[in-house]
Amino acid sequence: MKRVAILGATRGMGRSLARRFVERGDFVAVLGRGEDEVKRSVADLEARGVPGTRVIGVACDLEKPESFKPALEEVEQRLDGLDTVVVTAGAFATQEQLERDPSLAAKVLTLDFANTVLFCEEARKKLLMRGGGTLCAFSSVAGDRGRSPIIMYGAAKAGLSAYLEGLDHKYRKEGLVTVCVKPGFVRTGMTEGLKAPPFAGEPEAVADVVIAGIDDGTPVVYAPPIWRAVMTAIKAMPRFVMRRVKF
Amino acid sequence: MTDSRIEGWGRTSVVGQELSFDNLEQSPPVLFRGLGRSYGDSSLPPSANPVVVNTTRANRMLAFDSATGTLRAEAGLSLLDLHRTLLPRGWFVPVTPGTQFVTLGGAVAADVHGKNHHVDGCFGSHVRRLKMRVADGRVVECGPDLERELFLATVGGMGLTGQILEVEFPMVRIPTPWIWQESERVGDIDEYIEKLKESSAKFPMTVGWIDCLTPGKHMGRGILMKGRWAHSHEAPSKFPSEPPNLRFPIEAPEWLLNPLSIKAFNFGFYWKHLQKKREGIVDPFSYFWPLDFVKDWNRMYGRRGFTQYQCVLPNEAGPGAARRFLEVLTKRGGASFLCVIKDCGAESPAFLSFPKPGISVALDIAIRNDTQSLIDDLNEHVLKEGGRIYLAKDTFTRPEHFRAMEEKRLPKFLAAREKWDPQHRFRSAQSVRLFGDAP
């Protein structure tokens, strides 16, 4: 049994992951904003969890860095410990939207990079203080290479991936395992209205891949796994090709 | 957002927008759509305002009482998801249709029925509460004892009375997750109907398949299947595993389903059941939802798709109603790949619920140039027999046929709809066709 805190468990990937955790008996803390949303997700996980599973709801908002530390402390106290912290929360906007609207750009860059890193920092300190644990954050394949359809979102995720890699190099020997998840296209609320590319994944299938990565302490998890090959190919492309292709 | 093709399961379609929301209360006041397994145009938006809201992201269980089985959940929860969680713990929905790819909201809107209809009625008969958002934006609770008119119009109301947000109903305790099944080869339609009625007195679940191509003496020969939940002493102790998923790989060419291939299939299906009688334990997946393993099986019917025709021939029609129906059908060349016949129990008080005491007949018909006239012929016959059709399957019925079939019940439904949605904000391609809503 692991005690898992998930920031973003009320919807999308976080919801699917939380379900997988309680279905095998792990304790889950639903970190999210919107009291009613958190309550509904706690109820869902309680109904789905195997008997004996504990689920709690804790207010935490990626837009409010001051909520991070108290939230993690509350989880530790109410679940009598904390083993794994997962961040699936984030913001998404298309490149056109971000180019048009600087305040939206500021928000996406802040949430997906700065605030996510700040949250991970609190989780890092908490887990190291406890002697170790697993920190899993959702970056994106968009951060693997600068690409014209997703310049700013990709840049924020590139920064996050770099941060997570550094963290893993420095702290794995002290017991803090960092798992950087790079989802390809997953059909969730975040990708609503976008045309699904080939290899698009469903959140349930992606959740299985991510859970395996967390269990094994895989530093970089591509999900669906096919994206590792896709991104290897994209990373190998010379610039003059990248300038011409549309992805 | 760009437009996309929104399809019914029979592949009839409207080009428009299918929006999704985590919180359904934030959606615009338009038709809700779940997993899109209704065959015809009931989950499609009207063509002039082609927007529907997909509910499948609202899929949380909100309360499950493991002592009584009472479940409350968001309307986008599918039976597949529900059973993956609760079947291993010994719980089953009170009524399941032939697929698990149905949401709770969809099960209510179509008031789905299953193999146990003669005993347990439709899904809606088990629902205790619905949380709905109605046309004026209010969120209301309704049930058999609360806002009863809204409830009776919503159950079987094809989403036309408001948006179903949450559903509350009891799950049923089962002794084991396995089914004891007995099946029997039957020589013609009259014998089939007789045996079906006999079996329904003894078994909580019955259904059967008949060959609707062979005319004459063997018309309507078929396989009758009866079942009940297995007792623990006769069932395997392990949990049944879900069969592997297949996917129908391509859109089949239209010539694949021709009179000869359909005949061959029907012949094979009948004679595969070599012994006169068979019995034994089967898993619930292949018993209740045999087609769910083949993803996209509707591609078998090619680009033009297919329609399902399902009607009920009431007991008042007297003996031989099924035979008379088959005579009309075989005169038109049969044309159906599969014909499912089942007896129905009591009629629900819900205004547009499909079943009533009698015999339900369901046919899958590949769409061809003469499909409209075939459906017209069948509807005229059904009308004469005092029967009616199932809206969740329908694509071709004419409004005058529908109104004639629903002469008694339709005014009640329309009155409730006038009260709760006078502007017809919640309308579908089907309601434009059958109820005369503005497109």
Our measurement of the CA-to-CA distance between the termini of chain A, rounded to an integer number of angstroms, reads 42 Å
Count of DSSP H/I helices of chain B: 12
- At CATH level 2, the architecture of chain A is 3-Layer(aba) Sandwich
The quaternary organization reads as: heterodimer
Strand content of chain A: 15-25%
Q: Greatest contact pair?
A: A-B, 17 and 16 residues
Strand percentage of chain B = 15-25%
Share of helix of chain A, binned: 40-55%
What strand line-up does the widest sheet of chain A have?
A: 3-2-1-4-5-6-7
Give the structural class of chain A: alpha/beta
Write down the overall mean pLDDT of chain B.
94
Low-pLDDT parts of chain B are: none
The arrangement of helices and strands of chain A along the chain is EHEHEHEHHEHEHEHH
Low-pLDDT windows of residues of chain A: none
**Radius of gyration of chain A from CA coordinates:** 17 Å
CATH fold-level topology of the domain at 179-404 in chain B: Alpha-Beta Plaits
Shape of chain B: globular
The largest sheet of chain B, given as strand count, sense and whether it forms a barrel, is: 8 strands, antiparallel
